[in-house]
Amino acid sequence: MLSILRNLVQEVNSARDLQEALDIIVSRVQKAMGTEVCSVYLLDPATNRYILMATEGLYRKAVGQVSLAYSEGLVGLVGAREEPINLEDAPSHPRYRYFPETGEERFRSFLGVPIIHHRRVLGVLVVQQRESSRCFDEGEEAFLVTVSAQLAGVIAHSEATGAISGLSLTGEEARDISFNGVPGAPGVAIGTGVVVYPAADLDVVPEKPTDDIDLELGLFAEAVTAVREDIERVANRLASQLRPEEQALFDVYLRMLGDDAMPGEVANKIREGYWAQGALKQVVQQYIRHFEMMDDHYLQERAVDIRDLGRRLLSHLQEGEQKDQVYPERTVLVSEELTPAMLGEVPKGQLIGLVSVKGSSNSHVAILARAMGVPTVMGLVDIPVNQLDGRDLVVDGFEGQIFASPSDELRAYYQEICDEEDELIKGLEVLRDKPCETTDGHRVSLLVNTGLMTDVVRSLNHGAEGIGLYRTEVPFMIKDRFPSEQEQREYYREQLEAFAPSPVTMRTLDIGGDKALTYFPIEEENPFLGWRGIRVTLDHPEIFLVQVRAMLKASEGLNNLQIMLPMISNISEVEESLHLIYRVYHEVREEGYEIHMPKVGVMVEIPAAVYQIRELADRVDFLSVGSNDLTQYLLAVDRNNPRVAQLYHSYHPAVLQALVRIAHDAHSVGKPVGICGELAGDPGGALLLMAMGYDSLSMNAASLPKVKSVIRSVSREWASQLLEDVLLLDSPHVIKSCVDLALRNAGFGRYLRPGRTTPVALVQQAAS
Predict the structure, then answer these.
(1) Which residues form a coiled coil (predicted)?
(2) 364 is catalytic
(3) Of 157, 316, 364, 462, which one is the catalytic site residue?
């Protein structure tokens, strides 16, 4: 059964569209289970009805014609109960519903299992048998449940692909097609999708039509010729080193590139109207599917050869493209996984939105997007990326949604939100030089998190009082080697000069986890609980010492440097780090540099540190909470995993209780404590942190004006009462709703989410 399941998943993964995937499912399951009928009913989101989408055994003419209400019949019962139903005599069941057009009156035994993906029922997979004496046994039921679970994600992705191509399950034109992810950076963007994908990766090649078939045929012919020449060149070079049977492998490659082999099929696809890269993708994936299905192990392995040839051909096609990537005036960048380099390719002023399949609201691209003020949605795991190129898109960074092919009504709704946001930002400019002080005189420092020089102007324009977190790993990540002391010194000096005399807190190198250096790879099964942060740099003091030396020399004449140690889990790490810092300080002074000893602090981002605040504070000058990682570790939720993103919540009672304890314990020994996680940039979160007693809040520059406006408009007494109220609650969602309600009642609803009608309500109004 395992091999059957593996082959089935491979076939379905290679299907061109939803219908082909469903046809494969019913055919293979019927054969594997030796049953007379296998059918798939999918729940159409537009009508909330189950539609017969594929069958093997019922009348084919019923496909697309038979539909059931959400809770109608045995199919509806399976979906409503979200569990299998196994019956020997289905017609005797009170919920049985008979459709003459299917011909199912002959079948009595019934087994139906729900198809569920991310808690959403997508449909029902059904098998039926004529004899009432047959009861599907536990093994068969388990097999069908396993098939359903394995295929749910594939069906969800295929369903999304079908929707985005412009058709609903019923064949009607689709508009306002929505996909849900997680908010990456707040705001709304309305623009044109531009899909960027890694070079020579067939899986992410978009399927596009072509108007110039001759041009595409010519490009493909050139690619085939180039690859043949590459293979012949390698074969000739290795001829003297290989035995005849090994040399024959190159002949296999060359035969595959013959006109009557794979290239001929690709050319036929191009003649059907596909661009060369999309045609190549379809043919190669079809070949791979066939080879992987074969029983012969040798032939199965040939799938690897086909994939390699496909990549080689694609690489030449991409090199031969006649034009560079064109970015529209209002570009929404879309990718399987966005990287900072991709963002940098878009011409200045044209990037208005970001959409990423991988990542979450706390991944580093999302943090970068917030610093840049670019609305972003992350974690769209089922979105058909290659279908979004050139499409009109709406990016809702407040709710974590995107809409493809928006209607005029939806576009107008979101345009109004954009206009309100612009007005709000302009209205907050007057606060730039005013202190962040409550109405009853409590002062809080507002700082920025940064790692880029481009953030400096925006930060200063928004009234930042310094840098609460400078991510020093950024200079390391843009190099193909460790930066020298002089290179680091230049980076650090720019930041220190820009903000002088205000403090600049530089975190020592924090790699590992989700931050990797290509030239210093760290391969671990669980990187977030592994070798990262201070653990790496203490194991490599040569890296730590050079970095601290560069920081100290960069601070000469400014003396606004503060050093912060990441991922501290015990006192010995602090003592060892301080020993190295003091050593470098004295060495730099001996070299003739006139510098002051900087303040040194630690980041509180591991639960163990929460219970050692007093001991840590005795050894350092300040403490700073990294609430992103602290939340991740307290809740055991990978903050970059979109599958569990809904469990990551900064307002979780355990997180708030930990933050209260940290502030109390730090102040009890007379040490200042700040926070530099994303919670500080949320207006509601900032109020709670201020009430807890945090001395400084560090955030992305775009959030600073809103936070300052809210804090300046309330008393600390009001915020303290709000904190007291929410600490009695036990649900993060209820706590967030309570804080939002308090802000709305205080007149700050516009900071939470502009607009008056939800998109869902608007779409429903348009449909009615």
Answers:
(1) none
(2) yes
(3) 364
